[in-house]
Structure formats: structure tokens, C-alpha cells
Amino acid sequence: MSAIDIILSIIDILLGVSMVVLFLVQEGNDKGMGAISGATTDSYYSRAKGQTLEERLKQMTKIVAVAFAVVSVVLYIAVTKGF
Questions:
Q1: What is the pLDDT of residues 34-55, one digit of tens each?
Q2: 12 and 73 in contact (C-beta within 8 Å)?
Q3: CB 32 within 8 A of CB 38
Q4: Cα 57 to Cα 4: distance, rounded to the nearest angstrom
Q5: pTM of the prediction?
Q6: Which residue ranges make up each domain of the chain?
Q7: Is 74 helix (H, G, I), strand (E, B) or coil?
Q8: What is the DSSP code (8-state) at residue 40?
Q9: 53-78 pLDDT per residue, tens
Q10: Which residues contact 35 (CB under 8 A, 6 or more apart)?
Q11: Burial class of residue 10, CB neighbours in 10 A (0-12, 13-18, 19+)
């Protein structure tokens, strides 16, 4: 393994662990039986949803997941091609 393979492996592992941690920290989207009947609750929390900690955690999880996928593909190409 070359130095680039080792560096990409370490980054891949760190991104994978951080993705799992971000996933576990988030609360569930359990809306209960009200979601089936169409009942909605219009509260300050639902209107300011984009600014809450939960939304930032979801956004960070998406970013880390995309970065993990990209680094994994680059690592695969680097290992198979022997860069």
C-alpha cells in the first residue's frame, strides 16, 4: 500500500465512524398515528425547522455520507489501479 492508500483509508474510516455517530445522535421522525390520519400540528418548531439542531444534524449526515461515498470510490480506484 502506498501513502495515498493509507491516508484515504484513514479518512474513510473516520468518515464512516462520524456518519454512524451522527446517525445515532439524531432523534427519530416518529409522528405517531396522527401522520396516518393527516393530522398536522403547526407550531413554532415546525415553522423554524430549518434552523434547529436536528436539521443541522441531518444536513451534516448527508454531507458526511456523500463524502464517505466519494472517498470510498476514490480509495477503491487507487487500490485497484495502484496509484
A1: 555 665 555 665 666 667 888 8
A2: no
A3: no
A4: 30
A5: 0.72
A6: 1-23+53-83
A7: helix
A8: -
A9: 888 999 999 999 999 999 999 999 99
A10: none
A11: exposed
